[in-house]
């Protein structure tokens, strides 16, 4: 547990006074206050693990790309031996940015201001006019390199943290890793990006998107209600008969997993999809028969044999009944491994991840990656890319809905009255995990509730009040 010491804002308000654990409320002020934003850059983005991209974006030795850890620009580079490094994109001489392009290939990164040069791993090489020793003699070269972050790869995803002596990435994921492995570590060769990430700017505070990513399922019924009209959905909830009436309500039932570290997953029941595809009751089918009928999103029938090489029997049980399909990794990641119904009754999988990069108290950069398994056939990859862009890309129908709400929330949080209104997370699970559920974590079943988002805010509060 982190030591608590609540920061005090300039008007005398403590950060701890902006969140009400007993009634599960959060003051709107947190979505617009510049002081809070600056604290977040230090206490959250300066201390937690942050996703920067995927190793397939820099496949060759000396490839690099420039990304952001909170408000800091960083260089993500692969050295000549294939190892990936993340370094602060600030020259230690005069503070100039070293890498000025989004990506490229460079054996040496040289600052244009005074020519200080660095290796892909951030080590200092030297400065111009070697005989004059223009970098001075007060510090050894070993202390003149770019500031280095701690790096880990998870399923090819690149994560980094400035908290060099803090929790490991596995400790950070905790029990949620058991579920994430079903998405990111399920195949023999892993996944790769389908082109560079899409980006656009939204005039909103990063937390409006970040907390929604903590498995907010309920907004789908209203904000995305058109999905029930254009998608191949039909009404069937618990105790209801199936009909031709379009309705997304059945998709709101399933299992949700919360984490003390703010991670969240929505595990959605596959029974209806399998029943439609096979004409049989899922309970009458084996795990293998269900995999053959409906492979995991993004995989083909020919690829499902790989699952047994990488996942446990319990994970396969969940993957074929209520697999994790949408959710988030704290603080600013959303993932979607979803099944997109087709007009002919078939299904195409989508594999996408978003990050919401802070660009100030009132601005975020939406960054969207689209993935495919390396073994996926070209025809499937093309379908996945097209449909994922149409739904979840920067101009996608789903993201147009979501990105319309976040600016309004941010504006409301600036109002003299609005900043004191509270966001409420009071729809609480009273069920617990399903009987026989094999997975760990804080697990509940039934209609989607607010628990996952509330745990996101609890961890935000813990970090913001930690020394």
Automatic annotation (TrEMBL):
Gene3D superfamilies xref list: Naphthalene 1,2-dioxygenase Alpha Subunit, Chain A, domain 1, Rieske [2Fe-2S] iron-sulphur domain
Entry protein name: Ring hydroxylating alpha subunit (Catalytic domain)
Signal peptide residue numbers: none
GO molecular function: 2 iron, 2 sulfur cluster binding; dioxygenase activity; iron ion binding
Originating species: Halopseudomonas formosensis
InterPro entries to which the protein is assigned, alphabetical: ARHD_Rieske_2Fe_2S, RHO_NdoB-like_C, Rieske_2Fe-2S, Rieske_2Fe-2S_sf, Ring_hydroxy_dOase_asu_C_dom, Rng_hydr_dOase-A
Domain Rieske, residue spans: 49-160
Keyword annotations: 2Fe-2S, Aromatic hydrocarbons catabolism, Dioxygenase, Iron, Iron-sulfur, Metal-binding, NAD, Oxidoreductase
Family in the record: Belongs to the bacterial ring-hydroxylating dioxygenase alpha subunit family.
Pfam families documented for this protein: Rieske, Ring_hydroxyl_A
